[in-house]
Amino acid sequence: MENNLQLSDELNIRRLIKKTTIKFKLDSSYKQKILINRIDASEGIRTEECGTNASVIAKYEGIRKDMIALQRNFLKKPGLIADGRDMGTVVFPDSKIKVFLTADINVRAKRRYKELKEKGINVSLTAILRDMETRDKQDRERKHGPLAMTHDSIIVDSTNKSIDIVVSEILNYHEKIY
Fold first, then answer.
1. How far apart are CA 46 and CA 158, in angstroms?
2. Is residue 29 within 8 Å of 43, Cβ to Cβ?
3. Taking phi first (over 0 means left), then psi (-120 to 50 degrees means alpha), and beta for anything else, what does residue 115 get?
4. d(C-alpha 35, C-alpha 32), whole Å
């Protein structure tokens, strides 16, 4: 987006990926920061526009291959927690614990709406819901690395659960394995 590339410009997006560095860093309050080419992109990559654009370019096999290579370099001992729609199926298929986190789409849309409103962003709940439906459909139907659950994933439905309860369920599962 910052380089004003067209989402259909696979060649130049791939060139950009090859010269991109991504680092994770904790700030003084232990909040994770994501640095892309040394610039804090922690908030920017979580915008609706960025998510929508990621879903659009994820259909290109070459871009996916380049991003997977970049993402796999994040894995360091003792391990990592990665979130994303293809982390357990494509990027880290050998992960010991895979969580397929789900929730009713209306609940997801309301959560996202609340999150954006709290940041002072003027949004429409209807538009968020429509965008989520479109992105979910695109991601499920894409040819390369579609949104799917692996046979060894655990399903955690967060529809009627707080973050603390969801985290507790995942940690309990982890404790059973280890």
1. 19
2. no
3. alpha
4. 10
- Cα–Cα distance measured from residue 91 to residue 54, given in angstroms and rounded to the nearest whole number: 15
In this structure, whether the domain defined by 10-177 belongs to CATH 3.40.50.300 is answered with yes
List pLDDT tens digits, range 83-94.
Answer: 988 899 999 999
∠ CA 168-68-36, nearest 5°, is 80
Domain locations in the chain as residue ranges: 10-177
pLDDT score of 7: 95
Other CB atoms within 10 A of residue 103 CB: 17
Share of the chain residues as helix, strand and coil, in percent rounded to the nearest 5: 50, 10, 40
Per-residue pLDDT for 158 more than 90? yes
